[in-house]
Design goal:
Elements (H helix, E strand, L loop, with lengths): L25 H14 L7 E5 L2 E5 L1 H7 L1 H8 L9 E4 L4 H13 L9 H10 L3 H13 L6 H10 L3 H13 L1 H4 L3 H4 L3 H8 L3 E2 L4 H11 L1 H4 L3 H7 L2 E2 L3 E6 L8 E6 L19 E7 L2 E6 L6 E4 L6 E4 L10 E5 L4 E5 L4 H5 L6
Parallel strand pairs: 1-3, 4-5
Antiparallel strand pairs: 1-2, 6-7, 8-9, 9-10, 10-11, 12-13
Length: 350
């Protein structure tokens, strides 16, 4: 005779034999809890950072989690790893407060007057995301008045995209810069890089070279020959050729500047010998081009002076799109296309 089943027993009990509960919000809740404890009345603060006489009550764990600089400081054999009070010399009190805001809250108000210092300090303290955002902000705000200083800054911090933006502004406004203090004190290697990158003839690059040499002729005369050899001027005349029929849905533009073949700019929807420029349009009488080695970069060819100027970039990289001019709104719209991320997921094509 079969024994009766125990009361309450069922086949569903097998479901609980190896059941593991995973709280998907656990890590976020723990992080929020830790930050809440840290932020409330400076609870559990275990290190004091002194900057220009002001003391910040902070937490080694939080600083180390956000910055490799502080992680190395607190886990090394340096005296700072054991000191209760640490004095920082290479940052101002106001900028360090902004860094603390970023480390603890993930937000920071970038002000133009402090931007370059934040850029430098965020690199020194290895706050990578903040450094990259400062770089993008500086690239969008490069102008004649600060381009040489920004170029110098980007060179010191090995920031190629910001460096390129600042250099382009410098070479297209060289005539305005050649008598400024920043230009006359420019290091030789930066001047060489500017003049060898194709300077419009209208910017009188030869005069700029002479002004730089004459400012300290005794020491700089030795560079005269190498600078003149490095000089590469772009011709004044720009010829635009339409390839294909105007009635076709898409067409290519080829822009040839009177310079060496390797330096010519091709405005085309297809691959070229130089760069792949994905979109172009005419707006306000000038030619606007987006793309090239950096897909979101934009240039403008000034119809009056026939000079190329670097414009503010697109908010994000985009390929195979179209530029549309809307004169009534004094705006240019980018339509369609794909992001680099979407293209990278496609199989290779011939």
């Amino acid at each position: 005779m079969e024994s009766p089943e125990e009361p309450g027993a069922s086949m569903d009990e097998n479901y609980f034999v190896n059941y593991t509960f995973k709280d998907r919000s656990h890590s976020g809740r723990v992080a929020q809890g830790i930050m809440k404890l840290c932020l409330e009345e400076e609870l559990f603060a275990d290190v004091t950072i002194s900057v220009e006489g002001r003391e910040f009550q902070l937490h080694r764990l939080v600083l180390s989690a956000q910055s490799c600089f502080f992680r190395s400081m607190f886990t090394s054999n340096l005296k700072e790893a054991h000191n209760r009070v640490i004095v920082l010399q290479d940052v101002s009190e106001s900028v360090f407060q902004l860094l603390v805001d970023y480390i603890y809250h993930g937000t920071v108000k970038l002000r133009a007057e402090e931007l370059q210092e934040i850029y430098e300090v965020s690199d020194m303290y290895q706050l990578t995301s903040l450094f990259e955002e400062c770089s993008r902000f500086l690239a969008r705000t490069v102008q004649v008045g600060n381009c040489l200083q920004v170029m110098w800054l980007a060179d010191r911090h090995s920031d190629p995209e910001l460096y390129t933006a600042a250099k382009h502004c410098a070479k297209t406004h060289l005539a305005q810069l050649q008598n400024t203090e920043e230009f006359l004190h420019l290091p030789h290697h930066l001047l060489t890089d500017i003049i060898s990158d194709g300077v419009p003839c209208s910017q009188n690059p030869t005069e700029a070279i002479e002004a730089w040499i004459n400012f300290n002729k005794e020491e700089r005369e030795a560079f005269a020959e190498s600078l003149r050899t490095s000089l590469k001027e772009i011709g004044e005349n720009v010829h635009i050729y339409l390839i294909g029929k105007e009635s076709s849905r898409t067409h290519s533009l080829a822009v040839s500047l009177h310079c060496a073949e390797d330096d010519s700019i091709s405005v085309s929807g297809q691959n070229s010998l130089c760069h792949q420029i994905t979109a172009a349009c005419k707006h306000g009488g000038d030619l606007y081009v987006v793309g090239g080695s950096i897909p979101r970069r934009m240039w403008k060819c000034n119809n009056a002076t026939v000079d190329w100027e670097w414009c503010a970039p697109l908010p994000r990289d985009r390929l195979q799109h179209t530029l549309v001019s809307v004169p009534g709104k004094d705006a240019i719209y980018s339509l369609g296309g794909k992001t680099l991320h979407s293209l990278s997921s496609l199989p290779d094509q011939c």
